[in-house]
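FORM 7B: Structural annotation worksheet

SECTION A. Query
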Amino acid sequence: MKYLYIICISLFLFSCGNNEEEDHEHDAEGNHLSSEVPAISKTIWTDQTELFVEFPALVEGRTSKFAAHFTVLDKHQPVRNGSVTVSLIKGDSGIRHTVESPSSPGIFSPALQPKESGTYDLVFELKTSEYSDRIVIEDVQVYASAAEASENVAETEDGGISFLKEQAWKIDFQTAPVTKGEVYDIVNTSGVWQAAPGTYKSLAAGANGMVNFVAENLTEGSEVKRGQLLMNLSSEGLSSNNIQAEIAQAKARYEQAKAEYERKKELYEDRIVPKAEFEKVESDFRVAEANYRALASNYGAGGKQIRAPFDGFIKSISTSNGDYVEQGANLVSIGTDQSRLLKTQLSASHNPSKEAIASVWYRNGDGNWSEVEDGSIVSVGKEVEDSKPMIPVYIKVNDVVEVPEGSFTEVQIALGQTETGIVVPEAALLEDYGNYSVIVQTGGESFERRPVKIGKRNGKNAQVLNGLEAGDVVVTTGNYQVKMTSMSGQTPGHGHEH
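SECTION B. Predicted structure
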């Protein structure tokens, strides 16, 4: 029994010794950084990269190993290939070390052994197949001894939310800097999608005849290509209004007028016939030629041809296969999604005008807000009626809008004078019963939930009246997961998968 007790105690101590210690820093291989000197962590953002690096305080004559976490800010993914060079520079001299690949995705582990104490610049140079970046941490101190480092470097105690890089890299995660931007008074309304002028065309019958569909599956919504043959109009078998007979007659008149014109032209040049007579013959010839070419245009073996004028889709069909139609009758309409017209309405109390409308946002097919480009306000109504107390506003949208014509959408219109203020993306906001907060990244793996007061909103950005400053970094995608981590009451161990 005593022997069994000793074995249990030994196993317990062994298992404790193998637990990851939450309060210790680790290098890129998951080893504990030296406890003889305090650990330092730095987080630096560039336009392309986030660097979160952990390393023991630099001491003269001692090798310090870095755990440098590199994140590509676009899509917030780890750097998976490339090299990193770390340099310790003072003036024109220094030391450097290059590692040619990450020890695990996103994490590079170079090492440096400073030769002299002093103040240096610590420089990280990242080179990948996609891009390069250079990150400088200024005024990094190299201490003369471990004791001096321990005296001067305070251990940081972060009481915030711990969310490891490996966690962020595995989920849909994104951060964005807090900036100053322009904010407006926003009017929430709705709009309806209409076809913009010039984006559709109705094709009419150029002659009397029987409709013969040539294109297979010619239905509303079908895609068509420029010049594609859609249908023929055949007058074969008709005793009257027969286009074939009319073309034959027009051709005969044209050829007769042409021969007479050429004969009189020679006589006129020889001054045998007067000018007035020649001009009369020439006029008859030009009329006969125009009439023949008009009748014969787009005429083929199957009859008068109806072709698509541009790439697009069948907007509507006004006839059926085999129908008899008269010249000028509408046959089919071709449309394109290259441009749409968004009709919305504003109350006259807003005193809207083209000059007063600063910007417009609408819900796109994905449910996200899209901003209409500048100069797209086509017109604003000038008057209202008792039966129509709203003023119509027409907005041209050049983006492809993949929603049916006549569909409604949410619209936000920015009016009045602009103000400059702190703004964050709408996606960064967390709401609890009318109160708002954001997740602020205070370090590479450190976050805090911060309450904010919201001002004007436009669906894409929100004005922050207090709680944030320009330069803060907030989580815009994945903030809910960080929030849930904070609510769990557990801080994950620093179990880097290196």
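SECTION C. Observations
The mean pLDDT is 82. The CA atoms of residues 327 and 397 lie 35 Å apart.

SECTION D. Sign-off
Analyst initials: ____
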